[in-house]
Amino acid sequence: MSFVVVIPARFASTRLPGKPLRDILGKPMLQHVYERGCESSADEVIIATDDERIATAAESFGATVCMTGSQHQSGTERIAEVADVFDWDDLKVVVNLQGDEPAMPSGLIDQCAQLLEDGDADVATLASPLLHSDDLDNPNVVKVIRDVNERAIYFSRAAIPFVREGANRTLAAETALHHHGIYAYRCGVLRQLVSAAPADLEICERLEQLRALSLGMSIAVGVPPQRPSGGVDTEADLLRVARELEQ
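Below the sequence we write its predicted structure tokens.
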């Protein structure tokens, strides 16, 4: 298995300004993310950013940095620029490790890449069973439902499957999975994604993975043996992740 990890990182954040450089146990959060990438089987780990403050911090802890444009609307677009800068072949596998996932287990990075290697899917990602049945209706929990081949049928912030009156809510909560924001794709697929216009479904749900489904691409969805704790968006998340990393 051969793949690279790219960590897209931007300084701006509505809820947590300067998020990648926020301190967790004496290190910037971005360094923890980088270390998780280095603990995986990746051939190389690269931080992609358009901000000199992030680049300076990353270089201080020995990371390879790729400076990108500031026009990108998503991490996927930023990673696509990295692929072009390094002139990566269309078959090269890239794992998108988001810059606010300092507690992402390295084994899950490998699992995501392996899912792509083992099958013929265009994209691979991970999802876990819902923690609570109430998460089915929580728009902050992105749900995914799969077919018998463990390929994504649809992603949504809404309750999927919808529970009609008299239907089994427990079954619905067991069918839906909580999607984790980690992706693996080959560079050729990555280039197709960013060259396409945003899909209507993507615009409605504000979920970029719906562009791939709208283009007819297949997304393999694996269930990890260890549930990742989730990303950092608030001060409370910083404290939670600090406790997890201490343990």
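The chain has nine helices and eleven strands.
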